[in-house]
Amino acid sequence: MCKLVISAVLCVLSWHLKGASANDPASSWLTYASFSVPASSGVITRVSTTWTIPTMPAVPFGSNAPGWWFGVQTAGGNGALIQPIMAYGYQGSKFSIFNGVFDWTDESWRTSPEVQTVKPGENIISELAMSPSDTRTYVMKIAKEGNEPITTPFTLNKRQTDPETVVYFVLEHQPITCKAYPTSEKLTFRNITVEVNGKVVTPTWEIHQEVPACNSRAEAVDAQTLEFTWSTKWRGASDENNYDVDTSAWPRKWWSAEQPGVTEEA
User: Ramachandran region of residue 58, left (φ > 0), alpha (ψ -120 to 50) or beta?
Assistant: First the structure.
């Protein structure tokens, strides 16, 4: 089992001085689905899902590591966002899986030391669950099907008093060109299970468009299935985020040190 580490580069959070609100949802989210539990009713104790790695993008660069992930957070969005993640471009022109926590209580970004490379068509199995021995600790697991998972514990900051009562499924990081997104134009989270106070519940998903780009959409197919779609050919006049992205307001999460530049559409 590995512990989260703080990146000396990635946790420099100058963006919040520019007027961004210090909570989730963040302006780097395109579209997302959420399920909330009233604090008086309980706390999220487990979330699990499976999904399949989409196809490669048509161009290797042009987005700040687009990510597909799920996680838990407080109702006010100002606690720890605990999230198993799949991203493209995090370590070069490939898909990677890892665990991360963006903690608004101390404005830190922590990631698992271990990162695994995955390929299009491979199935991912992931979960996050409250530790049975410590209700302030969550354990994240993510793996390619058949492999040993990256297992990462995280204990809530002492300054966080609110419980984790919101589940998010998110598409994050607006591209400069829509061709920087996978050509399959779809990713589906399947077999979603949510537990509250240790018991399985049937979530009612709310769909939100935060700062959409590339005609991105989230859809609740049913309680156990969420589908995210986008267009790699989108050039709508109202979708200016594709070509003029102000990244100064983004949380400095998984910026890739190996990403040398971007490729713009001709």
Answer: alpha
